[in-house]
Design brief:
72 residues; globular; single chain; 1 helix
Amino acid sequence: MHKGNNHEHYDLPFLLAGSCGGHFATGRFVAYQASAAGHPHNNLLVSLANAIGTVETTFGDPEHCAGPPPPT
């Protein structure tokens, strides 16, 4: 996690390599800010689950997951 002592989950870097069979666009940088207007990292995890064929709409605590982030 970002800060190991308290498991803070802000400013976490994620690297996705490959397109998962064309599900993700490659060659781009996307910054999701940790703020009220940003997207929690659980949304990214929903996108990864959807890329491998699940129909999940939330990951973990629904309070911290609004579904997959919109494509950019």
